[in-house]
Amino acid sequence: MNTKKVRFSGEAALLIVLIINSLGVDLMTKSGFGISTISSVPLIFSTAFSFFSFGTWNYIFQTLLVITLMVLKKSFCPGYFFSFVVGLGFGKMIDVHNAWLQTLPDTLVFHTLYFIAGFILICFGICLANNCMLPIIPTDTFPRDLSEITQKKYKVIKTTFDLCCLSTTVILSFAILHRFYGIGVGTVFCAFLTGKGVSIVEKFFDKHIEFYRITGNGGVVVGRGVRHGGHV
Predict the structure, then answer these.
(1) Which residues of the chain have pLDDT under 50?
(2) Distance from CA of residue 165 to its chain's centroid?
(3) Residues of 160-182 as b/e, b for ≥16 C-beta within 10 angstroms?
(4) Who contacts 137 (Cβ-Cβ below 8 Å, separation ≥6)?
(5) What pLDDT is attached to residue 221?
(6) What pLDDT shows up at residue 216?
(7) Which among 176, 171, 158, 173 has a CA at the least distance from the CA of 231?
(8) Which of 95, 129, 85 has its CA nearest to residue 23?
(9) pLDDT of the residue at 222
(10) Which residues pair with 7 in a beta bridge?
(11) What is residue 2's predicted lDDT score, i.e. its pLDDT?
(12) Nearest to residue 197, comparing CAs of 127, 123, 117?
């Protein structure tokens, strides 16, 4: 029996991504269990070099990821320019959420809830980003496009990318701060399970949601399988 899919615009999906992914990162930071792996590197730099905010260091890190993709592709992709803009919005939203989250309670129970909520939000956010058919946050663009370049499954590339971020954070924390910083059991959890979590949410999207673009292509529906099939 075929289930009728809900149609959802890529533009709305991208807007939601900017809000919930940045919130997810800040919730994990607030939890104290360790920040998400993709934001662990900029956290080290924001702590060691506080003349830039955590959000700004995130933007710098994302810029380096996009440059790496262009080097690997040996070409300039116009869509990556807009990824810079989206990345800037993501960095600003991190600072916005960080401000109001400071008012929330600091107890073990609440910290646990912050971490769980943050993890779920990030998994959903990554899936929305991968399906929106628009330039997305560079930290999401990198594993998505790298999976296409290497012809490897998305969850494999995502897990490898997260583990590389985790290893880099460990090295930088000792090299720059001379102590173990920013990594906790939650960070390790994310490194190994975010790829799997994204894969689970993606299967739900495949069954129940059909993404399309309002802008460009005359509003014609574009199936997610055209771009992402075989990589999740």
Answers:
(1) 218-232
(2) 12
(3) bbbeebbeebbebbeeeeeeebb
(4) 17, 18, 21, 62, 83, 86, 87, 90, 129
(5) 38
(6) 64
(7) 158
(8) 95
(9) 37
(10) 210
(11) 58
(12) 123
Q: Which residues pair with 169 in a beta bridge?
A: none
pLDDT at 117: 93
Amino acid, single-letter form, for residue 34: G
Residue type, 67: I
What pLDDT is attached to residue 158?
80
Tens of pLDDT, residues 21-63: 889 988 988 888 877 777 788 888 888 888 888 778 888 888 8
Tell me the CA distances in angstroms from 1 to 4, 203, 209, 227, one per residue in order. Answer: 10, 17, 16, 26
Its pTM stands at: 0.71
Residue 218's Cβ-count burial label (10 Å; 0-12, 13-18, 19+) is exposed
The alpha-helical segments, DSSP class H, found in the chain are 10-31, 37-48, 54-73, 78-101, 108-131, 138-150, 154-176, 185-208, 225-228
Cβ-contact 199, 232 below 8 angstroms: yes
Q: What is the pLDDT of residue 217?
A: 54
Q: Tokens 């993606």 correspond to what residue?
A: 202
* Integer Cα distance of 45 and 42 in angstroms: 5
Token pair recorded at residue 102: 């400071």
Residues with Cβ within 8 Å of residue 71, at least 6 apart in sequence: none
Q: Are strands 6-9 and 209-212 parallel, antiparallel or unpaired?
A: parallel
